[in-house]
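Entry for zinc ion complex. Fields follow.
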Amino acid sequence: MTDRPTAGVDIGGTKIKAAVVTPDGAVLASATAPTPPGGAAMLDVAAELVARATASAGVPVAAVGVGAAGVVDPVTGEVLAASDTFVDWVGTDLSAGLAARTGLPVTVANDVDSFLVGEATWGAVRGARSAAGIALGTGVGGALWLDGALYRGAGAAGEIGHMPGFGDARCTCGQRGHLETLASGRSVERRYAEVLGGAGPETVGAAEIESRARTGDEVAVRVLADAGRAVGSAVLVLAALLDVGHVVVGGGLARAWDLLEPAIRGRLDDEPPVSGHRIEVRQAVLGGDATVIGAAALARP
Ligand SMILES: [Zn+2]
């Protein structure tokens, strides 16, 4: 079809963003609003933001792509699972609900899947034949780009945050020792507080831990290096299984790239894949727009 722009929508736990994106990945206009409680209300806000972004871009869009938090069924577009911060979100029929509200064809994927499509199409791993995406946010998300296309499985392919083998701490999912217990922003905060042991009731935020690491706080340096090594171990598993040659790391904690990257690289150099293939690990470059750009790309026919 058409060289008309498409709209990308990023539905997250705290905010919803919509953008009008050209076929070559440029954002013409965007609009953002806080995420309301409830699936129907979230779809109302998403549709309104698409309308606002389209109005400010001054051009119609051909289709809408959504990158949504949670596990999304790739066939039906229904939300299959989500963290308990989302009220009444599981079971929401994203495709039909948003198509009815916008009158446009709707494609849905997980938000980290969309992030990876954005980075693989226009960002840090542009042109890579196969790549993994890792989002180090409040939790840890993952996604796979294999042989030039998003690989979704039954909706949760590449979700490495809940991969086991990373110690014994309790994970947000209720199980123990998942990657997320070392490499998420929340786990970095928890581990920093644990090592300081009763230094005070205040939780030190991940951004503050990052700046303390830069000024020589050894505990801060250590918890961030532990996070980086854990990511490196997960990358080695992905490389052993899938021979992915490129990995892109995004999310809030990836701002501390200069502190994480040496630990990730060190882990990969300690135990290189038997294939002998070098794995390129790169920081995401599209920032807060990666998910809307990727969602808009997925919506293109
Ligand atoms: Zn878990």
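NOTE: The mean pLDDT is 94.
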